[in-house]
Design a protein that fits this description.
Blueprint: H1 8-15, E1 27-31, E2 34-37, H2 38-43, H3 54-77, H4 84-107, H5 115-124, E3 133-143, H6 148-154, H7 160-169, E4 174-182, H8 188-195, E5 203-207, E6 210-221, H9 226-256, H10 281-289
Antiparallel strand pairs: 1-2, 3-4, 3-6, 5-6
Helix pairs in contact: 1-3, 4-9, 4-10, 5-9, 9-10
Pfam family, one: SurA_N_3
Catalytic activity: [protein]-peptidylproline (omega=180) = [protein]-peptidylproline (omega=0)
Organism: Sphingomonas sanguinis
Length: about 300
Amino acid sequence: MKNLSWSAVALAVLALSGCQSKPEGQVAAKVDGQAITTQALDAELADAASGVDRLAYRKAVLPQIVDRTLLAQAAQKMGLDKTPEFAAQREREEQKLLIQLLAQKLANTVPVPNVQAVDAYIAARPYEFAQRQKFYVDQIRFAKPATTDALLALGRFTTLDALADELTRNATPFTRDHVLIDSAYLDPAVAAQVAKQAFGDPILLPYKDGYTANAIVQRMAAPTTGEPARGLAAEILRRKAIADALGKTLKEQRQKASISYEAGFKPTGKPAAGNNGVESKAVNDAALQVPAAIPTAARRQ
């Protein structure tokens, strides 16, 4: 999981915004009269390592903020803060920041998962924890066939070489490479199937808008057990609860809001569900960016 961080473009966009509330706190420096406050310095701690010396980090990051302020001022002098491109990017970054702050606020209301919930999550997902495995696979990626019958026909091949020959005969573009697959990131049913797959026997799996054919070359046990497993499961459940709270807020806002689309812009169909089954990328992204309750709990090795 990653903490909130902003690219240089995003930071410049926010820095150039002259009509927004200014950070408060003790003034640490001034650049042509523009104050850099301790609150602005503390905002940089989102990118710092856990347990960092706050005072030392403030001093280390201050020259970077000075440089950023100087570059933003140069952009202002060129009138870049008056362009439509700036206005669009500023609105986008402000919305992302507000959503992240909302996610962090809702995170404070999410209860800590209890022991029973953590144990049930671990028990239901053995290939994420005690039976977790990593696989080196020989993998072919190809576009989704036009028909189900065509896909089933590709599934009859017992080697990747034979499958590659068939794709070549059909003039179907494909790529082939060796990749590492971790069962912890697979759907539980798929993970169970891959774990039992014989070496060299291709297994077809959906991938984005196409499919992959995977033949296992090497299988390695990588169990996550004990307290690391419990901490990880608790953090996963916490983030799901945050996503659920954000999803509820989004649903309430949709019900209250008046939304209209100009001709040709109305979405068709429902968006694909992301992590936690929530049908909103904004919700999933914000939930994932909330700092971990225990900094190392949400990491996998």
